[in-house]
Amino acid sequence: MHCTKNAIELQGLRYRYGDGTLALDDVTLLLRHEERTAMLGPNGAGKSTLLGHLNGITRAQEGSVFIEDELVTGANLAEVRRKVGLVFQDPDDMLFMTSVRDDVAFGPLNGGVSGAELSARVDAALAAVGVAELADKPGGHLSFGQKKRAAMAAVLAMEPAILVLDEPTSNLDPRARRRMIDLIKGLDITFFVATHDLDFAWELCERSVILDAGRIVADGPTRELLADAELMQAHGLEVPTLALLGALDEKVCHRNK
């Protein structure tokens, strides 16, 4: 659904770990609704720390976080977490009930949803990610790819306005990876994803932000940034395979003219 509000706005965000390490350094970023944006960067760049700020798991030490133009404060964290669905990298952090159905129902139930509406939300979320047949199984009995999709269902059942994903394709075999990509591609929702899977970013995200040493060092169209070999190398990244294949196809077509 179209929304004129901004989705996420960060202003001058700084964050230090307990040992004094500066994890985020003056991060300013505006994400609009209906955008699909990838956040890229080497390990230790601060990506997961930044994601934690988006639904209040991590609180800003300096600077401000706005969700749909509202400043995130201690008083509105419940509403922020309803609007921003954060899917963790490790699905075991999100699956802890006796069945997948109960895991998916947990968030809406605690948000005051019950009865027929709760059942409808749970069924819709399970169907959307393709795990409806696993609803009565414990999360611990699923494959890793199934766990990833069940964790996604648990967030989708909250009907968030914004989906935030931390490494959604990590540790998946090729078939499970493709299923996850197709699942995310089919969602009609604003999303912001931290990923090392550059082919994923190339395929799904029109915009990319590169974070390195806690600072945004590049922000622009994905296929421009990711095809820039010098930029990518400077920040511990590589030109994705899909970009290289596209360049090769262009050369072949040019030679055949």
Structure notes:
The protein has helices at residues 47-53, 77-83, 100-110, 115-129, 144-156, 174-185, 198-204, 222-225, 229-234, 241-256, and strands at residues 6-16, 22-32, 36-40, 62-67, 70-71, 84-87, 162-166, 190-194, 207-212, 215-221. 40% of the residues are buried. With 257 residues, it is of the alpha/beta class. The protein has a single domain, classed as Rossmann fold. The strands form two sheets. The protein has a six-stranded mixed β-sheet with strand order 6-7-8-3-9-10, sandwiched between helices. A four-stranded antiparallel β-sheet has the order 2-1-4-5, with helices on one face. The chain is built from ten helices and ten strands. The longest helix has 16 residues, at 241-256. Helix content is 38%, strand content 24%.
Low-confidence stretches: 248-254
Q: What is the arithmetic mean of pLDDT?
A: 92
Radius of gyration: 19 Å
Helix content: 25-40%
Which of globular, elongated, flat, extended, rod-shaped describes the shape?
Answer: globular
Q: How far apart are the termini?
A: 44 Å
Annotation field: number of helices: 10
CATH top-level class: Alpha Beta
Corresponding CATH architecture: 3-Layer(aba) Sandwich
